[in-house]
Specification:
The structure holds two protein chains of two kinds. Chain A is mainly alpha-helical. Helix content of chain A is about 65%, strand content about 0%. Chain A is built from 16 helices and two strands. Chain A has a two-stranded antiparallel ribbon. The longest helix of chain A is centred in the first third of the chain and has 36 residues. Chain A is globular and about 65 Å long. Chain A starts with a strand and ends with a strand. In chain A, about 55% of the residues are buried. Chain B is mostly helical. In chain B, about 85% of the residues lie in helices and about 0% in strands. Chain B contains one helix and no strands. The N and C termini of chain B lie far apart (about 55 Å). Classes of the chains: A mainly alpha, B mainly alpha.
Chain lengths: ~550, ~40
Amino acid sequence: MSVTITQDGSENANPEEHHAEDHHTEDHHNEPPKGIGRWLFSTNHKDIGTMYLIFSLVMLFLGGGMAMLIRAELYFPGLQFLEPDLFNNMVTTHALIMVFGVVMPAAAGMANWMIPLQIGAPDMALPRLNNLSFWLLPAAATLLVLSIIVPFFGGGAPVNTGWTLYPPLSVQAGMGMDLLIFTLHVLGISSILAAINIVTTIMNMRAPGLTMMKLPLFVWAWLFTGILLIMIMPALAGGVTMLLFDRHFGTSFFDAAGGGDPVLFQHLFWFFGHPEVYVLLLPSIGVLGIIVPTFSRKPLFGYKSLIWGMGVLLVLGMVVWAHHQYTIGMSVAATNYFMIGTILISIPVGLMLFNFIFTMWRGAMTFETPMLFAIAIIVMFSFAGTTGVMLAVVPADLQYHDTYFVVAHFHYALIPGALFGLYAGVFYWLPKWTGHMYNETLGKVFFWWTTIGFNLTFFPQHFSGLAGMPRRIVDYSVQFVEFNQISSIGSFIFGLSHLLFLYIIIQSVRGGKKAADMPWEGAQIGTPGLEWSLPSPPPFHSFETPPTVK
Amino acid sequence: MKTEQQELALKKSNTRMALSLASLALASLCLAAYGVSKVVV
Protein backbone atom coordinates (compact mmCIF):
# COMPACT_ATOMS: atom_id res chain seq x y z
CA MET A 1 0.00 0.00 0.00
CA SER A 2 1.46 3.43 -0.84
CA VAL A 3 0.28 6.86 0.14
CA THR A 4 0.28 9.79 -2.25
CA ILE A 5 0.24 13.16 -0.57
CA THR A 6 -0.93 16.38 -2.10
CA GLN A 7 -0.54 19.57 -0.11
CA ASP A 8 -3.42 21.47 -1.70
CA GLY A 9 -5.32 18.88 -3.70
CA SER A 10 -3.05 18.94 -6.77
CA GLU A 11 -1.11 15.89 -7.93
CA ASN A 12 2.51 16.15 -6.87
CA ALA A 13 4.98 13.39 -7.60
CA ASN A 14 7.90 15.17 -5.95
CA PRO A 15 7.26 15.85 -2.25
CA GLU A 16 9.90 18.60 -2.26
CA GLU A 17 8.41 20.73 -5.02
CA HIS A 18 5.71 22.41 -2.99
CA HIS A 19 8.09 23.43 -0.22
CA ALA A 20 9.16 26.66 -1.90
CA GLU A 21 5.53 27.82 -1.88
CA ASP A 22 5.18 26.53 1.69
CA HIS A 23 8.19 28.51 2.93
CA HIS A 24 7.04 31.72 1.23
CA THR A 25 3.53 31.70 2.67
CA GLU A 26 4.51 30.41 6.11
CA ASP A 27 7.77 32.31 6.75
CA HIS A 28 6.21 35.49 8.05
CA HIS A 29 4.30 33.79 10.89
CA ASN A 30 6.44 30.69 11.23
CA GLU A 31 8.93 32.24 13.64
CA PRO A 32 8.87 30.64 17.09
CA PRO A 33 8.39 33.00 20.04
CA LYS A 34 11.56 34.30 21.66
CA GLY A 35 12.86 33.82 25.20
CA ILE A 36 11.91 31.53 28.06
CA GLY A 37 8.22 32.04 27.31
CA ARG A 38 8.63 29.93 24.19
CA TRP A 39 9.24 26.92 26.39
CA LEU A 40 7.22 27.73 29.54
CA PHE A 41 4.03 28.53 27.68
CA SER A 42 4.59 26.38 24.60
CA THR A 43 1.60 24.97 22.77
CA ASN A 44 3.77 23.66 19.93
CA HIS A 45 3.96 19.87 19.70
CA LYS A 46 7.56 19.93 18.42
CA ASP A 47 8.81 22.12 21.27
CA ILE A 48 6.90 20.10 23.86
CA GLY A 49 8.22 16.87 22.31
CA THR A 50 11.76 18.25 22.53
CA MET A 51 11.23 19.16 26.20
CA TYR A 52 9.90 15.66 26.97
CA LEU A 53 12.96 14.12 25.29
CA ILE A 54 15.47 16.36 27.08
CA PHE A 55 13.73 15.67 30.43
CA SER A 56 13.88 11.96 29.71
CA LEU A 57 17.60 12.16 28.86
CA VAL A 58 18.37 13.98 32.14
CA MET A 59 16.41 11.36 34.07
CA LEU A 60 18.22 8.58 32.18
CA PHE A 61 21.50 9.82 33.64
CA LEU A 62 19.98 10.21 37.11
CA GLY A 63 18.41 6.73 37.13
CA GLY A 64 21.43 5.24 35.42
CA GLY A 65 23.69 6.79 38.04
CA MET A 66 21.65 5.05 40.71
CA ALA A 67 22.09 1.77 38.85
CA MET A 68 25.85 2.35 38.83
CA LEU A 69 25.75 2.87 42.61
CA ILE A 70 23.78 -0.34 43.04
CA ARG A 71 26.15 -2.36 40.89
CA ALA A 72 29.22 -0.81 42.53
CA GLU A 73 27.88 -1.83 45.95
CA LEU A 74 27.20 -5.34 44.67
CA TYR A 75 30.66 -5.81 43.16
CA PHE A 76 31.81 -7.49 46.39
CA PRO A 77 29.77 -9.26 49.04
CA GLY A 78 29.53 -7.37 52.32
CA LEU A 79 28.79 -3.68 52.73
CA GLN A 80 30.98 -1.36 50.66
CA PHE A 81 29.82 2.24 50.85
CA LEU A 82 26.00 2.27 50.90
CA GLU A 83 23.92 1.92 54.06
CA PRO A 84 21.38 -0.92 53.58
CA ASP A 85 18.39 1.44 53.70
CA LEU A 86 20.00 3.81 51.22
CA PHE A 87 20.80 0.87 48.92
CA ASN A 88 17.14 -0.15 49.01
CA ASN A 89 16.21 3.48 48.35
CA MET A 90 18.44 3.46 45.27
CA VAL A 91 16.78 0.25 44.08
CA THR A 92 13.35 1.84 44.60
CA THR A 93 14.04 5.18 42.95
CA HIS A 94 16.12 3.69 40.11
CA ALA A 95 13.06 1.71 39.01
CA LEU A 96 10.60 4.58 39.48
CA ILE A 97 12.86 6.96 37.55
CA MET A 98 13.42 4.54 34.68
CA VAL A 99 9.74 3.62 34.31
CA PHE A 100 8.11 6.98 34.97
CA GLY A 101 10.94 9.40 34.27
CA VAL A 102 12.72 7.92 31.26
CA VAL A 103 10.69 5.48 29.18
CA MET A 104 7.25 7.05 29.54
CA PRO A 105 8.33 10.67 28.92
CA ALA A 106 10.62 9.66 26.04
CA ALA A 107 7.81 7.72 24.39
CA ALA A 108 5.42 10.62 24.99
CA GLY A 109 7.99 13.03 23.56
CA MET A 110 8.33 10.91 20.45
CA ALA A 111 4.53 10.75 20.20
CA ASN A 112 4.28 14.52 20.55
CA TRP A 113 6.89 15.11 17.85
CA MET A 114 5.81 12.48 15.38
CA ILE A 115 2.06 11.80 15.62
CA PRO A 116 0.89 15.20 14.31
CA LEU A 117 3.56 15.05 11.57
CA GLN A 118 2.66 11.48 10.61
CA ILE A 119 -1.09 12.13 10.40
CA GLY A 120 -0.83 15.55 8.76
CA ALA A 121 -2.21 17.50 11.73
CA PRO A 122 -1.15 21.07 12.53
CA ASP A 123 -0.68 20.20 16.20
CA MET A 124 -2.05 18.03 18.96
CA ALA A 125 -5.83 18.16 19.58
CA LEU A 126 -5.46 19.96 22.93
CA PRO A 127 -2.27 22.05 22.81
CA ARG A 128 -2.61 23.74 26.21
CA LEU A 129 -3.31 20.40 27.89
CA ASN A 130 -0.15 19.20 26.17
CA ASN A 131 1.82 21.96 27.89
CA LEU A 132 0.37 20.99 31.29
CA SER A 133 1.15 17.30 30.69
CA PHE A 134 4.80 18.13 30.18
CA TRP A 135 5.31 20.72 32.92
CA LEU A 136 3.83 18.35 35.55
CA LEU A 137 6.90 16.15 34.97
CA PRO A 138 9.63 18.45 36.33
CA ALA A 139 7.37 19.04 39.34
CA ALA A 140 7.09 15.28 39.86
CA ALA A 141 10.85 14.86 39.41
CA THR A 142 11.44 17.52 42.08
CA LEU A 143 9.18 15.66 44.50
CA LEU A 144 11.03 12.43 43.69
CA VAL A 145 14.44 13.95 44.34
CA LEU A 146 13.12 15.48 47.57
CA SER A 147 11.92 12.03 48.68
CA ILE A 148 15.54 10.85 48.44
CA ILE A 149 17.00 13.90 50.20
CA VAL A 150 14.48 14.37 53.02
CA PRO A 151 15.67 11.36 55.11
CA PHE A 152 19.08 13.05 55.38
CA PHE A 153 17.41 16.00 57.11
CA GLY A 154 15.45 14.17 59.75
CA GLY A 155 12.63 13.04 57.52
CA GLY A 156 12.54 9.52 58.86
CA ALA A 157 13.62 6.35 57.10
CA PRO A 158 14.23 6.45 53.33
CA VAL A 159 11.79 4.65 51.06
CA ASN A 160 13.21 1.15 51.02
CA THR A 161 10.30 -0.89 49.70
CA GLY A 162 11.24 -1.38 46.06
CA TRP A 163 9.18 0.31 43.33
CA THR A 164 6.18 -1.86 44.26
CA LEU A 165 5.73 0.09 47.55
CA TYR A 166 4.14 -2.87 49.36
CA PRO A 167 2.58 -2.25 52.79
CA PRO A 168 3.17 -2.73 55.66
CA LEU A 169 6.77 -1.58 55.01
CA SER A 170 5.59 1.42 52.97
CA VAL A 171 3.21 2.44 55.78
CA GLN A 172 6.19 2.56 58.15
CA ALA A 173 8.48 4.60 55.87
CA GLY A 174 9.35 8.22 56.63
CA MET A 175 8.32 11.46 54.97
CA GLY A 176 10.02 10.35 51.76
CA MET A 177 7.14 7.94 51.19
CA ASP A 178 4.57 10.77 51.26
CA LEU A 179 6.64 12.71 48.73
CA LEU A 180 6.82 9.58 46.57
CA ILE A 181 3.04 9.16 46.76
CA PHE A 182 2.59 12.75 45.60
CA THR A 183 5.14 12.10 42.84
CA LEU A 184 3.03 9.21 41.60
CA HIS A 185 -0.14 11.32 41.79
CA VAL A 186 1.43 14.02 39.63
CA LEU A 187 2.96 11.51 37.19
CA GLY A 188 -0.39 9.77 36.92
CA ILE A 189 -2.20 12.99 36.08
CA SER A 190 0.46 13.88 33.50
CA SER A 191 0.20 10.46 31.85
CA ILE A 192 -3.62 10.42 31.77
CA LEU A 193 -3.79 13.92 30.27
CA ALA A 194 -1.13 13.08 27.68
CA ALA A 195 -2.93 9.86 26.79
CA ILE A 196 -6.27 11.67 26.37
CA ASN A 197 -4.56 14.20 24.13
CA ILE A 198 -2.84 11.59 21.98
CA VAL A 199 -5.94 9.41 21.49
CA THR A 200 -8.06 12.47 20.65
CA THR A 201 -5.43 13.65 18.16
CA ILE A 202 -5.29 10.28 16.42
CA MET A 203 -9.07 9.93 16.22
CA ASN A 204 -9.94 13.50 15.25
CA MET A 205 -7.03 15.21 13.56
CA ARG A 206 -6.04 12.91 10.69
CA ALA A 207 -5.59 14.52 7.28
CA PRO A 208 -8.48 14.04 4.83
CA GLY A 209 -8.15 10.62 3.19
CA LEU A 210 -5.90 9.19 5.89
CA THR A 211 -8.06 6.28 7.03
CA MET A 212 -7.22 4.21 10.08
CA MET A 213 -5.86 1.37 7.93
CA LYS A 214 -3.33 3.70 6.29
CA LEU A 215 -1.82 4.83 9.59
CA PRO A 216 1.84 4.10 10.37
CA LEU A 217 2.20 1.39 13.02
CA PHE A 218 3.69 3.92 15.47
CA VAL A 219 0.36 5.78 15.48
CA TRP A 220 -1.65 2.58 16.02
CA ALA A 221 0.74 1.59 18.83
CA TRP A 222 0.19 4.92 20.58
CA LEU A 223 -3.59 4.65 20.12
CA PHE A 224 -3.54 1.41 22.09
CA THR A 225 -0.98 2.74 24.58
CA GLY A 226 -3.13 5.80 25.25
CA ILE A 227 -6.26 3.74 25.86
CA LEU A 228 -4.31 1.44 28.16
CA LEU A 229 -2.87 4.35 30.14
CA ILE A 230 -6.32 5.87 30.64
CA MET A 231 -7.63 2.58 31.99
CA ILE A 232 -4.79 1.66 34.36
CA MET A 233 -3.46 4.87 35.94
CA PRO A 234 -6.56 5.39 38.17
CA ALA A 235 -5.92 2.02 39.86
CA LEU A 236 -2.41 3.14 40.85
CA ALA A 237 -3.69 6.53 41.96
CA GLY A 238 -6.35 4.86 44.10
CA GLY A 239 -3.88 2.42 45.63
CA VAL A 240 -1.27 5.01 46.62
CA THR A 241 -3.99 7.34 47.93
CA MET A 242 -5.25 4.54 50.16
CA LEU A 243 -1.63 4.08 51.29
CA LEU A 244 -1.48 7.78 52.17
CA PHE A 245 -4.69 7.46 54.17
CA ASP A 246 -3.36 4.41 56.02
CA ARG A 247 -0.19 6.37 56.84
CA HIS A 248 -1.84 9.54 58.11
CA PHE A 249 -5.60 9.37 58.48
CA GLY A 250 -6.12 6.27 60.61
CA THR A 251 -7.59 4.03 57.94
CA SER A 252 -6.61 0.37 57.70
CA PHE A 253 -7.12 -0.55 54.07
CA PHE A 254 -3.93 -2.61 54.15
CA ASP A 255 -3.74 -3.38 57.88
CA ALA A 256 -5.03 -6.81 58.86
CA ALA A 257 -5.43 -5.71 62.51
CA GLY A 258 -7.97 -3.12 61.34
CA GLY A 259 -9.84 -5.51 59.04
CA GLY A 260 -7.83 -4.70 55.90
CA ASP A 261 -5.39 -6.76 53.85
CA PRO A 262 -1.86 -5.92 52.62
CA VAL A 263 -2.50 -8.15 49.62
CA LEU A 264 -5.22 -5.71 48.50
CA PHE A 265 -2.49 -3.17 47.74
CA GLN A 266 -0.64 -5.78 45.71
CA HIS A 267 -3.74 -6.39 43.58
CA LEU A 268 -4.30 -2.68 43.02
CA PHE A 269 -0.63 -2.09 42.24
CA TRP A 270 -0.26 -4.98 39.82
CA PHE A 271 -3.62 -4.29 38.13
CA PHE A 272 -1.77 -1.13 37.09
CA GLY A 273 1.72 -2.65 37.05
CA HIS A 274 1.31 -5.41 34.55
CA PRO A 275 -0.47 -3.44 31.81
CA GLU A 276 2.13 -0.74 32.51
CA VAL A 277 4.80 -2.97 30.98
CA TYR A 278 2.75 -2.99 27.77
CA VAL A 279 2.52 0.80 27.98
CA LEU A 280 6.33 0.74 28.02
CA LEU A 281 6.56 -1.85 25.23
CA LEU A 282 3.96 -0.80 22.66
CA PRO A 283 5.55 2.48 21.51
CA SER A 284 8.77 0.56 20.80
CA ILE A 285 6.82 -2.04 18.83
CA GLY A 286 5.39 0.89 16.89
CA VAL A 287 8.88 2.22 16.22
CA LEU A 288 9.94 -1.25 15.02
CA GLY A 289 6.95 -1.23 12.68
CA ILE A 290 8.39 1.88 11.04
CA ILE A 291 12.09 1.01 11.05
CA VAL A 292 12.01 -2.63 9.88
CA PRO A 293 10.09 -1.93 6.62
CA THR A 294 12.24 1.14 5.93
CA PHE A 295 15.58 -0.67 6.13
CA SER A 296 14.24 -3.86 4.53
CA ARG A 297 12.76 -1.79 1.72
CA LYS A 298 9.65 -3.97 1.95
CA PRO A 299 6.15 -3.20 3.22
CA LEU A 300 5.32 -4.42 6.71
CA PHE A 301 4.28 -8.08 6.72
CA GLY A 302 0.88 -8.61 8.31
CA TYR A 303 -0.08 -4.98 9.01
CA LYS A 304 -3.62 -5.99 9.99
CA SER A 305 -2.49 -8.88 12.16
CA LEU A 306 -0.02 -6.58 13.93
CA ILE A 307 -2.88 -4.26 14.82
CA TRP A 308 -4.98 -7.21 16.01
CA GLY A 309 -1.98 -8.49 17.96
CA MET A 310 -1.59 -5.17 19.76
CA GLY A 311 -5.31 -5.13 20.55
CA VAL A 312 -5.24 -8.68 21.92
CA LEU A 313 -2.16 -7.75 23.96
CA LEU A 314 -4.07 -4.81 25.44
CA VAL A 315 -7.03 -6.99 26.49
CA LEU A 316 -5.03 -9.98 27.73
CA GLY A 317 -2.50 -7.73 29.46
CA MET A 318 -5.25 -6.32 31.68
CA VAL A 319 -6.41 -9.65 33.08
CA VAL A 320 -3.18 -11.43 34.09
CA TRP A 321 -1.82 -9.12 36.81
CA ALA A 322 -1.55 -11.70 39.58
CA HIS A 323 1.26 -13.60 37.88
CA HIS A 324 3.36 -11.18 39.96
CA GLN A 325 1.71 -12.59 43.08
CA TYR A 326 1.82 -16.38 42.79
CA THR A 327 3.25 -16.73 46.32
CA ILE A 328 0.50 -14.89 48.24
CA GLY A 329 -1.60 -17.97 48.94
CA MET A 330 -4.15 -17.78 46.11
CA SER A 331 -6.29 -20.81 45.37
CA VAL A 332 -5.01 -23.29 42.79
CA ALA A 333 -7.88 -22.30 40.49
CA ALA A 334 -6.79 -18.67 40.65
CA THR A 335 -3.10 -19.37 40.02
CA ASN A 336 -4.01 -21.68 37.13
CA TYR A 337 -6.16 -18.98 35.55
CA PHE A 338 -3.40 -16.40 35.75
CA MET A 339 -0.80 -18.92 34.53
CA ILE A 340 -2.79 -19.85 31.43
CA GLY A 341 -3.60 -16.20 30.64
CA THR A 342 0.04 -15.24 30.98
CA ILE A 343 1.25 -18.05 28.73
CA LEU A 344 -1.38 -17.06 26.13
CA ILE A 345 0.15 -13.58 25.94
CA SER A 346 3.20 -15.06 24.26
CA ILE A 347 1.00 -15.69 21.21
CA PRO A 348 0.32 -12.08 20.14
CA VAL A 349 3.85 -11.05 21.12
CA GLY A 350 5.35 -13.90 19.12
CA LEU A 351 3.04 -13.00 16.24
CA MET A 352 4.38 -9.44 16.23
CA LEU A 353 8.02 -10.55 16.32
CA PHE A 354 7.46 -13.05 13.49
CA ASN A 355 5.77 -10.35 11.42
CA PHE A 356 8.89 -8.21 11.74
CA ILE A 357 11.10 -11.16 10.76
CA PHE A 358 8.89 -11.94 7.75
CA THR A 359 9.10 -8.27 6.76
CA MET A 360 12.89 -8.63 6.57
CA TRP A 361 12.68 -11.93 4.62
CA ARG A 362 13.91 -11.34 1.06
CA GLY A 363 14.13 -7.63 1.69
CA ALA A 364 16.93 -5.41 0.39
CA MET A 365 18.39 -4.80 3.81
CA THR A 366 20.90 -2.25 5.02
CA PHE A 367 22.11 -1.99 8.60
CA GLU A 368 22.14 1.61 9.70
CA THR A 369 22.03 2.25 13.44
CA PRO A 370 18.20 2.23 13.77
CA MET A 371 18.06 -1.15 12.03
CA LEU A 372 20.84 -2.56 14.22
CA PHE A 373 18.78 -1.65 17.28
CA ALA A 374 15.63 -3.08 15.69
CA ILE A 375 17.28 -6.46 15.04
CA ALA A 376 18.81 -6.48 18.53
CA ILE A 377 15.35 -5.82 19.98
CA ILE A 378 13.83 -8.77 18.12
CA VAL A 379 16.59 -11.13 19.32
CA MET A 380 16.93 -9.95 22.92
CA PHE A 381 13.26 -9.32 23.59
CA SER A 382 12.75 -12.96 22.60
CA PHE A 383 15.03 -13.90 25.52
CA ALA A 384 12.61 -12.00 27.77
CA GLY A 385 9.70 -13.81 26.18
CA THR A 386 11.33 -17.16 26.88
CA THR A 387 12.10 -16.39 30.52
CA GLY A 388 8.63 -14.86 30.81
CA VAL A 389 7.01 -18.15 29.85
CA MET A 390 9.28 -19.90 32.37
CA LEU A 391 8.15 -17.45 35.07
CA ALA A 392 4.50 -17.88 34.09
CA VAL A 393 4.56 -21.53 35.16
CA VAL A 394 3.39 -21.46 38.78
CA PRO A 395 5.42 -24.29 40.35
CA ALA A 396 8.58 -23.03 38.60
CA ASP A 397 7.90 -19.46 39.66
CA LEU A 398 7.80 -20.53 43.30
CA GLN A 399 11.56 -21.03 42.87
CA TYR A 400 12.21 -17.99 40.66
CA HIS A 401 10.08 -15.48 42.57
CA ASP A 402 12.07 -12.67 44.19
CA THR A 403 15.36 -13.93 42.76
CA TYR A 404 17.68 -12.35 40.23
CA PHE A 405 16.07 -14.52 37.55
CA VAL A 406 13.15 -12.12 37.65
CA VAL A 407 15.51 -9.12 37.55
CA ALA A 408 17.23 -10.58 34.47
CA HIS A 409 13.85 -11.27 32.83
CA PHE A 410 12.44 -7.81 33.22
CA HIS A 411 15.64 -6.05 32.24
CA TYR A 412 15.70 -8.12 29.04
CA ALA A 413 12.08 -7.10 28.53
CA LEU A 414 12.47 -3.41 29.36
CA ILE A 415 15.88 -2.53 27.98
CA PRO A 416 15.58 -4.13 24.54
CA GLY A 417 11.79 -3.91 24.59
CA ALA A 418 11.46 -0.29 25.65
CA LEU A 419 14.78 1.54 25.89
CA PHE A 420 16.39 0.24 22.69
CA GLY A 421 13.13 0.98 20.88
CA LEU A 422 13.49 4.57 22.00
CA TYR A 423 17.14 4.67 20.91
CA ALA A 424 16.11 3.26 17.51
CA GLY A 425 13.42 5.93 17.21
CA VAL A 426 15.86 8.68 18.23
CA PHE A 427 18.43 7.65 15.61
CA TYR A 428 15.69 7.23 12.98
CA TRP A 429 14.07 10.62 13.52
CA LEU A 430 17.06 12.70 14.70
CA PRO A 431 17.73 13.86 11.10
CA LYS A 432 14.12 15.04 10.85
CA TRP A 433 14.23 16.81 14.25
CA THR A 434 17.62 18.51 13.92
CA GLY A 435 18.05 18.82 10.14
CA HIS A 436 21.44 17.11 10.40
CA MET A 437 22.50 13.50 9.94
CA TYR A 438 24.04 12.01 13.08
CA ASN A 439 27.50 10.45 12.79
CA GLU A 440 26.71 6.93 11.52
CA THR A 441 30.07 5.46 12.62
CA LEU A 442 29.59 6.73 16.17
CA GLY A 443 26.01 5.46 16.09
CA LYS A 444 27.21 1.96 15.26
CA VAL A 445 29.91 2.16 17.95
CA PHE A 446 27.24 3.19 20.45
CA PHE A 447 25.04 0.28 19.37
CA TRP A 448 27.73 -2.38 19.87
CA TRP A 449 29.06 -0.78 23.05
CA THR A 450 25.63 -0.61 24.65
CA THR A 451 24.50 -4.05 23.47
CA ILE A 452 27.63 -5.80 24.71
CA GLY A 453 27.50 -3.90 28.01
CA PHE A 454 23.81 -4.67 28.48
CA ASN A 455 24.23 -8.41 27.85
CA LEU A 456 27.29 -8.59 30.10
CA THR A 457 25.25 -6.94 32.85
CA PHE A 458 22.07 -8.97 32.74
CA PHE A 459 22.79 -12.38 31.20
CA PRO A 460 24.77 -13.57 34.26
CA GLN A 461 21.85 -12.52 36.45
CA HIS A 462 19.79 -15.40 35.02
CA PHE A 463 22.33 -17.75 36.56
CA SER A 464 22.73 -15.98 39.89
CA GLY A 465 18.94 -16.06 40.16
CA LEU A 466 18.75 -19.74 39.32
CA ALA A 467 21.53 -20.32 41.87
CA GLY A 468 19.25 -18.74 44.46
CA MET A 469 20.40 -15.13 44.83
CA PRO A 470 17.46 -13.07 46.17
CA ARG A 471 16.46 -9.63 44.84
CA ARG A 472 16.80 -6.32 46.61
CA ILE A 473 19.64 -7.35 48.91
CA VAL A 474 22.67 -5.21 49.67
CA ASP A 475 24.81 -8.15 50.75
CA TYR A 476 24.93 -11.63 49.33
CA SER A 477 26.51 -15.04 49.93
CA VAL A 478 29.98 -15.69 48.50
CA GLN A 479 28.80 -18.28 45.97
CA PHE A 480 27.28 -15.46 43.90
CA VAL A 481 30.43 -13.35 43.67
CA GLU A 482 31.57 -14.20 40.13
CA PHE A 483 28.17 -13.57 38.53
CA ASN A 484 27.86 -10.26 40.37
CA GLN A 485 31.31 -9.09 39.37
CA ILE A 486 30.71 -9.82 35.68
CA SER A 487 27.36 -8.08 35.98
CA SER A 488 28.88 -5.02 37.65
CA ILE A 489 31.66 -4.70 35.05
CA GLY A 490 29.01 -4.99 32.34
CA SER A 491 26.94 -2.29 33.97
CA PHE A 492 29.86 0.16 34.01
CA ILE A 493 30.45 -0.55 30.30
CA PHE A 494 26.71 -0.12 29.61
CA GLY A 495 26.51 3.05 31.66
CA LEU A 496 29.54 4.69 30.06
CA SER A 497 28.16 4.11 26.56
CA HIS A 498 25.48 6.67 27.28
CA LEU A 499 28.05 9.43 27.35
CA LEU A 500 28.65 8.60 23.69
CA PHE A 501 24.88 8.70 23.12
CA LEU A 502 24.77 12.19 24.60
CA TYR A 503 27.71 13.26 22.45
CA ILE A 504 26.08 11.95 19.25
CA ILE A 505 22.85 13.84 20.00
CA ILE A 506 24.61 17.11 20.83
CA GLN A 507 26.79 16.80 17.72
CA SER A 508 23.71 16.27 15.55
CA VAL A 509 21.89 19.22 17.10
CA ARG A 510 24.86 21.56 16.61
CA GLY A 511 25.70 20.59 13.05
CA GLY A 512 26.67 17.86 10.69
CA LYS A 513 25.77 16.76 7.19
CA LYS A 514 22.48 18.37 6.11
CA ALA A 515 19.63 15.89 6.25
CA ALA A 516 17.33 15.49 3.26
CA ASP A 517 13.59 15.76 3.73
CA MET A 518 13.58 11.98 3.52
CA PRO A 519 17.01 10.79 4.71
CA TRP A 520 16.10 7.08 4.61
CA GLU A 521 15.62 5.58 1.16
CA GLY A 522 12.93 3.11 2.18
CA ALA A 523 10.93 5.49 4.37
CA GLN A 524 8.03 5.84 1.91
CA ILE A 525 7.39 2.10 1.60
CA GLY A 526 4.18 0.59 2.98
CA THR A 527 2.23 2.85 5.33
CA PRO A 528 4.62 5.75 5.79
CA GLY A 529 3.84 8.79 7.86
CA LEU A 530 3.47 12.21 6.30
CA GLU A 531 6.57 13.53 8.09
CA TRP A 532 8.72 12.84 5.01
CA SER A 533 6.78 15.43 2.99
CA LEU A 534 8.13 18.15 5.29
CA PRO A 535 11.60 19.71 5.35
CA SER A 536 14.22 18.59 7.88
CA PRO A 537 13.78 20.22 10.36
CA PRO A 538 10.08 20.92 9.85
CA PRO A 539 8.87 24.52 10.16
CA PHE A 540 7.59 25.73 13.54
CA HIS A 541 4.03 25.45 12.22
CA SER A 542 3.49 22.55 9.87
CA PHE A 543 0.44 21.34 7.92
CA GLU A 544 -1.48 24.54 8.48
CA THR A 545 -3.25 23.49 5.30
CA PRO A 546 -4.09 19.82 5.76
CA PRO A 547 -2.63 17.60 3.04
CA THR A 548 -4.96 15.30 1.16
CA VAL A 549 -4.06 11.64 1.17
CA LYS A 550 -5.12 9.51 -1.78
CA MET B 1 -7.13 27.12 5.31
CA LYS B 2 -9.97 25.74 7.39
CA THR B 3 -13.08 27.88 7.85
CA GLU B 4 -14.01 29.21 11.26
CA GLN B 5 -16.99 26.88 11.37
CA GLN B 6 -14.78 23.89 10.61
CA GLU B 7 -12.34 24.95 13.34
CA LEU B 8 -15.17 25.37 15.84
CA ALA B 9 -16.62 21.97 14.95
CA LEU B 10 -13.18 20.39 15.35
CA LYS B 11 -12.67 22.04 18.76
CA LYS B 12 -16.09 20.76 19.87
CA SER B 13 -15.31 17.27 18.66
CA ASN B 14 -11.92 17.29 20.40
CA THR B 15 -13.51 18.40 23.67
CA ARG B 16 -16.19 15.71 23.42
CA MET B 17 -13.63 13.01 22.70
CA ALA B 18 -11.42 14.18 25.59
CA LEU B 19 -14.35 14.19 28.00
CA SER B 20 -15.37 10.67 26.87
CA LEU B 21 -11.85 9.44 27.54
CA ALA B 22 -11.79 11.16 30.92
CA SER B 23 -15.02 9.35 31.78
CA LEU B 24 -13.25 6.10 30.80
CA ALA B 25 -10.59 6.94 33.40
CA LEU B 26 -13.32 7.61 35.95
CA ALA B 27 -15.02 4.32 35.12
CA SER B 28 -11.72 2.54 35.67
CA LEU B 29 -11.41 4.18 39.08
CA CYS B 30 -14.93 3.01 39.94
CA LEU B 31 -14.02 -0.51 38.81
CA ALA B 32 -10.96 -0.45 41.08
CA ALA B 33 -13.12 0.80 43.98
CA TYR B 34 -15.62 -1.99 43.32
CA GLY B 35 -12.77 -4.50 43.39
CA VAL B 36 -11.55 -3.06 46.66
CA SER B 37 -15.02 -3.43 48.15
CA LYS B 38 -15.05 -7.10 47.25
CA VAL B 39 -11.45 -7.67 48.45
CA VAL B 40 -10.98 -10.41 45.90
CA VAL B 41 -8.15 -12.80 46.63
